[in-house]
C-alpha cells in the first residue's frame, strides 16, 4: 500500500491506497518525491502514472482531515497536492496518466497536469470540491474540458466520461479496463523509442510555452479553500461527507 516505483526505460509510478485511492497528506508528498525520483533517473524516458483498484484517485483523504485536530492535516494535504501536481508537470520526461474508474478532485489535478491521458472506458472525471466546501483543480480540469463545461462541472459537481474527453482530444485512447496499462505502455514505448535528449528538451519547451502557470493558478484556487475553512463552510461540508460515508450503503442518498 502507498506509492510504488517500477524502474525502467518506461517507469511506472503506481498509487495504491485502498479502498478508493483517497490519498492521505503524507501520500501526496510521497507521490511528488517518487515522480521526481523517476524523472531524475537518466535511464527513464517516459513515466506512466497508474493506480491499483477500481478507481484512479478519489482525491484527498477527507476522513483524515476530520479526525485530525486543528488545521495540520488540511494544510499538509493542500501543500502535498500542490507538490504532487507540480512534480507531474515538471517531470523532465513525458508523463502518461492511465486512468480507470473514478478520477476525482486530486485525481483530476494529476491527470490534467500529465502530458497524455489514456483511459479505461469506465473512467469518469469530476470535481466534487464544491460539495466538500473547498475549491481547487479547476486549473487542471480546464486542460481537459472546454471552459464553460469546466465551470458547469465545478458548480454542479457533475462528472464526465472518458469518451467525452476523447472527443475533445484530451484523452488519447479509451480502452477496456483490462487493457489500460498495456495501452498506456504502448504509447510510452513509442515515445521512449525517440532520442531521449530531444524528448526531454521537447517537454521543457512545451512547458515553457504554456499559456497558464499551472502552479501559480492552483495555489490561487487553494487560497479560497483556506478562506472557506476559516468561514466554517469547509468543516461543515467535510463533516457531512464523513457522516454520509459512515452510513450503511443502503441508507445513503444517491444522485
TrEMBL record:
Keyword Transcription regulation part of the UniProt annotation: no
Pfam families from the UniProt entry: ECH_1
MF GO annotations: enoyl-CoA hydratase activity
Gene Ontology BP annotations: fatty acid beta-oxidation
Its EC number(s): 4.2.1.17
InterPro entries found in the cross-reference section: ClpP/crotonase-like_dom_sf, Enoyl-CoA_hydra/iso
Keyword Chloroplast: no
Keyword entries, A-Z: Lipid metabolism, Lyase
Family: Belongs to the enoyl-CoA hydratase/isomerase family.
Protein name: Enoyl-CoA hydratase
Species whose genome carries this gene: Actinoplanes campanulatus
Amino acid at each position: 500500500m502507498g506509492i510504488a516505483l517500477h524502474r525502467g526505460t518506461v517507469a511506472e509510478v503506481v498509487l495504491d491506497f485502498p479502498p478508493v485511492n483517497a490519498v492521505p497528506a503524507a501520500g501526496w508528498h510521497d507521490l511528488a518525491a517518487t515522480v521526481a525520483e523517476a524523472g531524475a533517473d537518466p535511464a527513464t524516458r517516459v513515466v506512466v502514472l497508474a493506480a491499483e483498484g477500481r478507481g484512479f484517485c478519489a482525491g484527498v483523504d477527507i476522513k483524515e482531515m476530520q479526525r485530525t485536530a486543528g488545521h495540520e492535516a488540511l494544510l499538509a494535504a493542500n501543500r502535498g497536492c500542490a507538490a504532487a501536481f507540480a512534480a507531474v508537470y515538471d517531470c523532465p520526461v513525458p508523463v502518461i496518466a492511465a486512468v480507470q474508474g473514478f478520477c476525482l478532485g486530486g485525481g483530476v489535478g494529476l491527470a490534467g497536469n500529465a502530458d497524455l491521458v489514456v483511459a479505461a472506458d469506465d473512467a469518469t472525471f469530476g470535481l466534487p470540491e464544491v460539495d466538500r466546501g473547498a475549491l481547487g483543480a479547476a486549473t487542471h480540469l480546464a486542460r481537459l474540458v472546454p471552459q464553460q463545461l469546466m465551470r458547469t462541472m465545478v458548480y454542479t459537481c457533475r462528472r464526465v466520461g472518458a469518451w467525452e474527453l476523447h472527443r475533445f482530444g484530451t484523452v488519447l485512447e479509451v480502452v477496456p479496463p483490462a487493457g489500460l496499462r498495456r495501452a498506456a505502455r504502448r504509447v510510452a514505448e513509442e515515445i521512449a523509442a525517440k532520442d531521449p535528449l530531444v524528448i526531454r528538451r521537447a517537454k521543457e519547451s512545451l512547458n515553457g510555452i504554456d499559456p497558464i502557470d499551472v502552479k501559480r493558478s492552483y495555489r490561487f484556487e487553494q487560497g479560497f479553500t483556506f478562506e472557506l475553512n476559516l468561514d466554517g463552510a469547509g468543516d461543515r461540508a467535510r463533516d457531512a461527507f464523513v457522516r454520509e460515508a459512515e452510513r450503511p450503503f443502503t441508507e445513503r442518498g444517491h444522485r
